[in-house]
Amino acid sequence: MYKASKSLEKQLIPGEHLMVAVAGQMGPSVVSTIFMGWAAASDLHQLHIGITEHDLVRVEFDKWGKPTELRRSPLSQVKLVEFKEGLLTDEVVIDLGETKPIRVRVSRLMRQGTQELVAILSSDRWRAAEIKMTNLSGNHKELPVQTPFWQLFLLGTGTAILGNVIGWLLSGFLVASLTSADFVEGYGYLAALLCWVVGLPGSLAFGLLAAWLGLVASRSHPNRIKNTTALLGFSLGVATWVAIGMLAIILERMTA
Predict the structure, then answer these.
(1) CATH 2.30.29.30 placement within the chain
(2) What is the distance between the alpha carbons of residues 73 and 95, in angstroms, rounded to a whole number?
């Protein structure tokens, strides 16, 4: 959102203010790109779209990220055709009064901005604008920052590894405290073997799961997504080893 607002603010006329801005993509869908390869990917291009008091402003970019075209459309001529929320991307279809509506896909990390844009373009847009819009060119200091999924994945994986270590120590303490010495020795060999199975592969899986759950859990609070992802990764790592330790204690009690 921040990058989009900066690029659009350069196109404003004196006295004009940007109420909302989002960065999206136009072109073939992700599925089409996967199946059609480079031919479809070459048609993808980035689009920054924003709304001022009177106009919808668009800046289009080429495949190398260079701005190629600036367009303005009066809000009185713009209509929202469709808005769909997806797992990873949201889709907005806007009729600009031209020959064909534009279809824009926006990352769900920017959903708050997308929903604000949709609110303005909906039938009650002026009331929604007064109540819900954030003036990005004003004094608002806490803009939501889009965090790439791969960064969330690395964060979740790192905290999951830490959680695995803490959980491994905790499970060893529980087993040593609640079972016999002979069983503890056998559990030690098992735990060493499981480290290779649960350790890195498990942490990668936990990192992926934590990143996805972090996106879902932080939908209404984008600024909390990193803390949520880190907590989830750590908790998954600890919980796995505690569960292993408890199952070992139950097994020892049943065979005693």
Answers:
(1) 2-132
(2) 10
Dihedral of alpha carbons 14, 120, 47, 137, sign: positive
pTM: predicted TM-score of the whole model, two decimal places: 0.45
Tell me the CB-side half-sphere exposure of residue 192, using CA atoms within 13 A.
5
**Tens digits of per-residue pLDDT, 84-109?**
888 788 888 888 877 688 888 888 88
Indicate the class that CATH gives domain 2-132.
Answer: mainly beta
Residue 180 CA: distances (Å) to CA of 192, 193, 223, 231: 18, 20, 48, 34
Please give the structure tokens belonging to residue 201.
């592969």
pLDDT in tens, 189-220: 777 777 777 677 888 888 888 888 887 776 66
Instruction: Encode pLDDT of 29-46 as tens digits.
Output: 544 444 444 444 455 678
> Cα–Cα–Cα angle for 54, 58, 64, nearest 5°?
165
Which tokens sit at 60? Answer: 């289009």
Q: What end-to-end distance do the CA atoms of the chain give, in Å?
A: 61
CB contact burial 104-114 (16+ within 10 A = b; e otherwise) = bbbbbbbbbbb
Give CA–CA dist 49/32, Å, rounded: 23
Closest by CA position to 26, among listed 59, 74, 3, 73: 59
Please tell me what DSSP assigns to residue 195: H
Structure tokens, 164: 């695995």
